[in-house]
Specification:
CATH class of the largest domain: Alpha Beta
Distance between the termini: 63 Å
CATH topology of the largest domain: Rossmann fold
Number of strands: 15
Helix content: 40-55%
Mean pLDDT: 88
Low-confidence stretches: none
Largest sheet: 6 strands, mixed
Length: 418
């Protein structure tokens, strides 16, 4: 039963997004009047975000659906340090060129979920390099550093754990909390953005920002955190045996994305439907109540809705049809991830193990050979038993395609080129 008056917080509570909030009554009042504004920061540590960031993106989507204005903060400045939160060791330092390239890739993940523009509830995207790069060190220490105590900072989980385990925690990383807090202050001043959203691992940083706003400007900043999402079996959300589930189609095809959601554990279906789709709650209650083989209908509904939201309806339907072709009819399925290989490579004697590796089904030829030993590798549906087996021209169909599989759920195609 919801206890909040505002549509935004009521939706977050009903769908399972809330772990912690600051100033609950005042936050609810703020979200009930005018156009509430909230932001989440995303550091540019890779060319794409992955499913592990999807809860945060959905938080911004829920805000916009409730009549609020989302702010996507790109960490062009903070990425130069690297967020140490919940990390056991320091991140590698990226060049400015790498950070800029990553930001361009990450931007693609937001447009399917949010409406950007100049309207009162349209999302905006800003970069904290715009103000962090201009900070004078002495001035920053004088104006911001004086408001933080070492006593409080060393109590943060990440700092305390690193110190307890005698792992290095650099002075560079120690400054990250101050910079993230300053982001909140800057956004409150520039845009009157008064809510910071984030995962529960960001609680300490969010509270630090709210405190800085109060000490500096006498205003009340608010924080909302979401639970860190793990699967029912305890696995990390968005991580699979063959790597992260990236949001950009260049890193993960719509077919692979659809399959990820289709393979959701039974116990997670209802929770994931609430978090990652717009399906109404009463329909979700019906779907999660399905039992036995019928639970697969709920998983397909999840896969369809999640893939449609990110990649569009056509891509979702194509992925669904391709999955049906692969698993029910034994055909190749055009939406399977496809990799080019030349005719000359095949004629020279191309190892099947190398094909599995090329197609991303295994991380190396050695892993492919281990899969062959375990009878888990197939070419065109036939089990490969010889570690030194080759793929020949006769394995390719009339369209120059051969289908490779590892286990029952991972499939890809090789396309013959000149």
């Amino acid at each position: 039963m919801s206890t909040f008056k505002s549509d935004f917080l009521r939706t977050l509570q009903d769908r399972g997004y809330i772990k912690q909030t600051t100033h609950e009554a005042e936050l609810d009042a703020y979200c009930s009047t005018g156009v509430p504004m909230a932001y989440i920061g995303f550091d540019a540590t890779a060319e794409s975000l992955h499913v592990g960031s999807l809860v945060q993106i959905m938080l911004l989507r829920r805000l916009q659906q409730a009549g609020g204005k989302p702010v996507v903060l790109m960490g062009g400045g903070t990425t130069k340090i690297g967020d140490p939160t919940d990390k056991e060791k320091s991140r590698p330092i990226l060049t400015e060129e790498a950070i800029a390239n990553n930001i361009e890739g990450i931007k693609k993940a937001f447009t399917p979920f949010l409406t950007f523009g100049d309207g009162p509830t349209d999302a905006i995207m800003v970069n904290n390099a715009d103000w962090l790069d201009k900070l004078g060190y002495i001035e920053f220490l004088r104006d911001v550093g004086k408001l933080f105590t070492i006593n409080t900072m060393v109590k943060q989980d990440t700092v305390a754990r690193r110190l307890r385990n005698e792992q290095p925690y650099t002075f560079l990383e120690f400054n990250y909390t101050l910079l993230q807090a300053y982001d909140f202050l800057e956004l409150s001043r520039r845009y009157n953005c008064m809510i910071q959203l984030g995962g529960s691992d960001q609680w300490g940083n969010i509270v630090a920002g709210a405190d800085l706003i109060h000490k500096s400007d006498g205003k009340t900043g608010f924080g909302i955190t979401s639970p860190l999402i793990t699967t029912a079996s305890g696995g990390k959300m968005g991580k699979t045996a063959d790597g992260a589930i990236w949001l950009n189609a260049e890193q993960r095809t719509p077919y692979e994305y659809w399959q990820f959601w289709r393979n959701t554990e039974d116990a997670d279906v209802g929770r994931f439907l609430r978090l990652f789709t717009d399906i109404p709650l009463d329909e979700i209650s019906r779907l999660e109540g399905l039992e036995g083989a019928e639970i697969n209908d709920a998983k397909i509904a999840l896969a369809d809705a999640a893939t449609t939201m990110l990649h569009g309806e056509h891509a979702a339907l194509e992925a669904k049809a391709s999955a049906a072709a692969v698993f029910q009819q034994g055909s190749t399925g055009e939406a399977l991830p496809t990799f080019d290989i030349t005719k000359s490579e095949i004629e020279a004697g191309y190892l099947a193990a190398a094909g599995f590796s090329l197609a991303g089904l295994t991380k190396s030829n050695g892993e492919a050979r281990r899969s062959i030993k375990q009878n888990a590798a197939k070419v065109n549906g036939a089990v490969v038993t010889d570690e030194n087996a080759v793929i020949s021209l006769s394995d390719f169909d009339e369209e120059g395609v051969v289908t490779l599989s590892i286990g029952k759920k991972r499939h890809a195609r090789l396309q013959l080129t000149d």
